Amino acid sequence: DTEVTQTPKHLVMGMTNKKSLKCEQHMGHRAMYWYKQKAKKPPELMFVYSYEKLSINESVPSRFSPECPNSSLLNLHLHALQPEDSALYLCASSQENTIYFGEGSWLTVV
Amino acid sequence: QKEVEQNSGPLSVPEGAIASLNCTYSDRVSQSFFWYRQYSGKSPELIMSIYSNGDKEDGRFTAQLNKASQYVSLLIRDSQPSDSATYLCAVRNYGQNFVFGPGTRLSVLP
To answer: Which of A99, A103, A105, A108 is most worth mutating to test chain B (most B CB atoms within 10 A of its CB)?
Structure first.
């Protein structure tokens, strides 16, 4: 079972809204990721959590705030986003040498 | 210099032919290499991983790695229209950081 579950699948939010993307995995993986993917571009790393601690932050603007409540859950809190933040947000987890993606959350900022 | 490079394509091959996808990487200490397939509007799906020089075969797919040349390829035999997708090469450099190439669009023509 290599399932990473993301909710919601689609989200439309205004620039003044606060919303959250959620991710869950029950594979016992100790590393979890947020990637952002724009159309016709590869996934770009945003954050990595390793053993529930933030280990990589790729200079992401503070309007994106990650949270790892436990080893199975990863959230991405969104506040005061811009239209250019509209993208597919991918959660992933990894064990040893392989990374597995969830189905993604399509975010539209209006 | 980009860390992971691929030809963007599109690469068009007739049904039943061999599709050859190429990837180069810049970091000599990279140890783990992956090929992902991404259909339009979907998340990346792992096809192959390879860690040692040489070939690795899985069904119609063969990954080839040459660390001295910093080159990894994916061959798809007996290409099918359902193989039409974007193929992402990914490299694990250090820690939990997986870096993706820009992807190659493959079109298999019936």
So the answer is: A99
Q: Which of A49, A48, A34 shows the shortest CA–CA distance to A85?
A: A34
B7: its two tokens? 């030809």
Whether the CB-CB separation of B40 and A104 falls below 8 Å is answered with: no
Q: In angstroms, what CA-CA distances link A106 with A89, A101, B74, B99? A: 6, 14, 29, 21
Cβ contact, residue pair A97, B51, below 8 Å? yes
Read off the pLDDT of residues B18-59 as tens digits, 9 standing for 90 and up.
999 999 999 888 889 999 999 999 999 999 999 999 999 999
Contact B77, B26 (CB under 8 A): no
Q: What local confidence, expressed as pLDDT, does residue B3 receive?
A: 87
